[in-house]
Inverse folding.
């Protein structure tokens, strides 16, 4: 494509193949964004306007009523979700980092076995642990409490965090560690002074991934909280729909409120999230 | 001067300290829970009071004569058959399109990946609105562009509900598969592609002959991840259809949840969960073995 | 240490500290709101839509009027038939944190709690408030397990109602009062379809609405047939009554809309409101749909009992109970007393669209539809508890019935298979039939 000098630009005709390529790309953008677009348009309408307009048309008179109604219902659940998501993200990242480090940089027999034994946890269907989990959380007196959700999300976050940190620490040259060892630093000090300062990227990558995963969870919230004070946003969202008739504008507004925090994370730190997806190659 | 022995002991203790919390959590929340779940499936706990008297394989026998379980199992298979190839093909298509030295590639990438970052709860509600028969997005959209005869009852349709559920999942997962394939395509050495171009391979042939055969590893990874997910999917179907109409979109995780928490059949539900766990392990253990074997 | 590393560590610490402070502040804001209230009544229910929410609100108002010091915490979880709420209750009960009372269908739906000793008997409440004198026998037995009372009913919906489009019916010259048997009913269907080519006489919806319909047809075969059915006595795979009911259902299906399996119950009722069909069999919560559409009773639409069930009242009953070990036992009892009281029932039911479970209720508070059904409630010979709506038969039976009937209606199963499936469903779960109903 070196022949495409600036001078030749004006006489270049649009290549039909390129036009078709961009047509396809934009078509897929349209298909990807259609549900979100119509959600925004629907949320901006009043219940009456909803009946007389098509869901992808912008409202003639935008109204924030639906957003207001939904926010009143979701204010506390969203704070709950923020709280346990942030804390469980931090805890699982710290634990994942320590595990990842101990399994890569401390040479001991069985490290690989322990690693496999931990990361199987990434794949298990949560239904296979659901009944015992509910029992454990009840026994600990944490049922219906935010702390119960923090513990649960931390525990089930360890496998993926370990995987991410380990794959990053694998790329730290052993010579760095050995140098610290020669200086007489123990494992703890090496971790604190050598490894941790190098871990900013994996911390961000893992934290972003964990934040999204925990924020998006429904099942644990469903079985570990009632309708009381510590209900997560994902569960509260179920409750916006009426018994018989769904007020779609309110439902969509609530859905958007719930999406905003994870959307911000994605738009600001998308690069790191992509890295997390690639390294972990897991969601579920 | 610290003796070597002391250092080793100190390091041993530190290692244990580093690993103790995560390992204890993993043992309790994963391994003990899984074993406990199996114990429950053999027990007579059938109701709101936990009870652990051994009852044997009764629940497992019941599973394979129970129509709802068999339907769910079959639906899980249908889900795999539509969703897994669907996502792989869409992901590959997007990756190939984006590989054409597209301007603003990163913007396209960010948009295509967006659905994957959404919660299934969000996807579920968005698409319930899309599929709403009377006033939903798709039907009114079709009507307004003169394609009213395509109006459809989507996920309400007994024969097609599962298909439309799969469409939603493909919508959500294509971007992720694109990411995996794009990385795969980009890692193919330029020289090979050039050589093929010199040989006169056209764009299509190039992909068909040179590039796709080299994507075996990402396709395998994608395949396993999608398969595992297809077995585990719960949130989306729970919100989108709740398993309906009838049992047409009911899949194993949903059946387990309903049996336990709606009908209070604890041992029966945990038997379903055990089967589900075994199915996933059949897929995952060979995958992990293949991936991590060389490191041993 | 080099300054870059140092700044990174400081950065990390800052992030963690910020998160901790944010968390702490949030906790400080959030936590106190749930503390420090000793006198509380916490109730769970699934009444979240307009009229329903207003109805439970009115009932709570009655309670708060009597006990102004008590804070009532309503936990409304949407999803018809408690589809989302029941799992939450299951978890709450397992956690030993059962609410002071929660909504459920009377009858078998409560048996799982009873069998696990999680309900307290409330015989005292029934005696002290003299409820047996004002609540019909069948409703009484729906509130009992093994002879003791464990629930109080809050309302009664009627299941065996035919809703008709009066104008369309008059247009083909049919007098609804004559439709007391299936032959007359199907003749009227024929007349309508003959006069309105392209339209279907009967509006039908998806899954459970079909089982609901089957239940009414079975009742039309006689109260003894229905009684045997819910007592688990129909286990013959070629039972004549089931077979006759399925024959009626086959004829019925030939007059329904083709897309029945994709319509919710209210969408089916709407077909009738919009003059696209003339009949719809549905419980009397459907009345709300007509009111929303500004249809006028006895002018635009009207009701008769399902053919053959003129002397019967199909019961769909919501109830509350006193779970064992609740946080506020005294408030739980008070709540049940308010629920069962004349004032409570007459506050709740006119808004809910149901009638009071008490025969002494003030019928002038209700609309014209309820005048008709309220009069029937006081005069019918027989009452029967609904299976589809959780009361009449064990859950192991009722939860599978929908799929069996759905398979028949969609043509996936023939009559013999369906009759056998219904009989086997009862036979396979015979141990679960612990209540012996006496309907006549």
């Amino acid at each position: 494509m070196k022949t495409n000098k600036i001078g030749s630009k004006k006489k270049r005709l649009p290549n039909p193949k390129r036009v078709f390529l961009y047509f396809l790309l934009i078509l897929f953008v349209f298909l990807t964004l259609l549900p979100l677009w119509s959600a925004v348009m629907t949320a901006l309408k009043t219940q009456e306007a909803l009946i007389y307009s098509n869901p992808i048309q912008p409202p003639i008179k935008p109204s924030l009523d639906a957003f207001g109604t939904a926010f009143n219902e979701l204010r506390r659940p969203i704070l709950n979700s923020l709280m346990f998501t942030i804390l469980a993200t931090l805890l699982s990242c710290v634990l994942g980092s320590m595990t990842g480090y101990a399994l890569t940089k401390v040479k001991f027999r069985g490290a690989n076995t322990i690693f496999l034994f931990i990361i199987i946890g990434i794949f298990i269907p949560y239904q296979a642990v659901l009944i015992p989990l509910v029992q454990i959380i009840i026994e600990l007196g944490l049922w219906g409490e935010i702390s119960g959700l923090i513990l649960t999300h931390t525990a089930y976050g360890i496998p993926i965090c370990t995987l991410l940190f380990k794959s990053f620490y694998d790329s730290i040259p052993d010579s760095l560690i050995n140098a610290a060892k020669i200086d007489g630093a123990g494992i703890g000090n090496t971790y604190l002074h050598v490894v941790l300062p190098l871990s900013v990227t994996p911390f961000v990558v893992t934290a972003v991934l964990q934040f999204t995963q925990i924020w998006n969870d429904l099942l644990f919230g469903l079985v570990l909280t009632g309708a009381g004070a510590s209900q997560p946003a994902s569960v509260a969202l179920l409750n916006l729909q009426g018994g018989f008739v769904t007020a779609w504008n309110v439902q969509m507004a609530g859905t958007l409120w719930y999406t905003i925090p994870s959307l911000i994370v994605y738009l600001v730190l998308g690069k790191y999230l992509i890295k997390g997806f690639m390294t972990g190659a897991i969601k579920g | 001067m610290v003796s070597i022995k002391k250092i080793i002991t100190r390091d041993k203790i530190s290692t244990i300290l580093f690993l103790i919390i995560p390992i204890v959590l993993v043992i309790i929340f994963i391994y003990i829970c899984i074993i406990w779940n199996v114990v429950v499936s053999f027990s007579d706990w059938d109701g709101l009071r936990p009870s652990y008297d051994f009852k044997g394989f009764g629940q497992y026998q019941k599973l394979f004569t129970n129509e709802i379980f068999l339907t769910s199992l079959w639906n899980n298979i249908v889900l795999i058959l539509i969703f897994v190839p669907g996502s792989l093909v869409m992901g590959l298509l997007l990756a190939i399109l984006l590989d054409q030295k597209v301007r603003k590639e990163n913007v396209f990438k960010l948009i295509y990946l967006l659905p994957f970052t959404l919660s299934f709860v969000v996807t579920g509600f968005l698409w319930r609105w899309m599929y709403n028969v009377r006033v939903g997005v798709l039907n009114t959209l079709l009507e307004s562009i003169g394609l009213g005869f395509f109006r459809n009852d989507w996920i309400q349709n007994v024969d097609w509900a599962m298909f439309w559920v799969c469409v939603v999942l493909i919508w959500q997962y294509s971007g992720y598969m694109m990411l995996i394939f794009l990385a795969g395509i980009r890692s193919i050495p330029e020289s090979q592609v050039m050589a093929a171009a010199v040989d006169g391979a056209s764009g299509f042939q190039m992909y068909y002959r040179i590039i796709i055969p080299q994507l075996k590893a990402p396709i395998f990874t994608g395949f396993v991840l999608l398969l595992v997910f297809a077995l585990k999917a719960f949130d989306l179907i729970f919100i989108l259809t709740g398993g309906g109409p009838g049992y047409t979109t009911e899949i194993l995780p949903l059946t387990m949840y309903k049996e336990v928490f709606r009908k209070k059949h604890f041992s029966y539900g945990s038997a379903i969960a055990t089967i589900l766990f075994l199915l996933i392990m059949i897929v995952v253990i060979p995958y992990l073995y293949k991936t991590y074997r060389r490191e041993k | 240490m080099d300054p870059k590393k140092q700044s990174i560590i400081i950065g990390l610490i800052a992030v963690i500290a910020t998160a901790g402070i944010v968390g702490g502040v949030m906790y400080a804001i959030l936590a106190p709101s749930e503390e420090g209230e000793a006198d509380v009544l916490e109730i769970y229910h699934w009444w979240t839509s307009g009229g329903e929410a207003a109805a439970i609100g009115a009932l709570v108002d009655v309670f708060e009027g009597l006990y102004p010091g008590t804070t009532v915490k309503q936990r409304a979880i949407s999803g018809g038939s408690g589809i989302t709420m029941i799992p939450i209750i299951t978890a709450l009960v397992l956690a030993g944190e059962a609410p002071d009372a929660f909504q459920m269908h009377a009858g078998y739906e409560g048996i799982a709690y009873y069998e696990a000793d999680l309900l307290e008997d409330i015989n005292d409440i029934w005696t002290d408030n003299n409820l047996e004198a004002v609540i019909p026998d069948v409703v009484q037995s729906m509130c009992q397990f093994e002879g003791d009372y464990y629930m109080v009913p809050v309302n009664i919906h009627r299941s065996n109602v035919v809703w008709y489009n009066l104008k369309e019916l008059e247009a083909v010259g049919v007098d609804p009062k004559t439709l007391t048997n299936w032959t007359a009913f199907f003749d009227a269907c024929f007349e309508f379809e003959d006069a309105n080519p392209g339209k279907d006489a009967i509006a039908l919806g998806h899954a459970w609405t079909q089982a609901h319909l089957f239940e009414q047809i079975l009742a039309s075969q006689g109260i003894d047939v229905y009684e045997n059915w819910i007592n688990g006595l129909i286990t013959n795979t070629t039972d004549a009554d089931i077979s006759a009911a399925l024959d009626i259902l086959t004829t019925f299906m030939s007059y329904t809309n083709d897309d029945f399996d994709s319509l919710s119950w209210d969408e089916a009722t709407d077909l009738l409101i919009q003059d696209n069909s003339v009949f719809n069999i549905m419980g009397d919560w459907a009345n709300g749909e007509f009111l929303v559409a500004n249809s006028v009773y006895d002018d635009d639409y009207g009701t008769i009992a399902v053919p053959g069930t003129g002397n019967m009242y199909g019961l769909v009953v919501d109830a509350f109970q006193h779970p064992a070990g609740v946080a506020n036992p005294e408030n739980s009892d008070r709540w049940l007393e308010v629920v069962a009281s004349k004032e409570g029932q007459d506050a709740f039911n006119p808004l809910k669209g149901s009638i009071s479970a008490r025969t002494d209720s003030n019928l002038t508070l209700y609309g014209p539809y309820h005048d008709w059904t309220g009069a029937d409630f006081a005069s019918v010979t027989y009452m029967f508890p609904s299976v589809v709506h959780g009361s009449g038969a064990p859950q192991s039976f009722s939860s599978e019935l929908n799929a069996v009937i759905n398979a028949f209606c969609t043509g996936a199963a023939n009559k013999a298979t369906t009759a056998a499936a219904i009989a086997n469903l009862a036979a396979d779960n015979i141990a679960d039939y612990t209540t012996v109903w006496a309907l006549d």
Q: What stands out?
A: The two ends of chain A are 42 Å apart (CA to CA). Residues 14-63 of chain A form one domain. Chain A touches chain B through 93 residues (CB under 8 Å). Residues 1-10 of chain A have pLDDT under 50 and may be disordered.
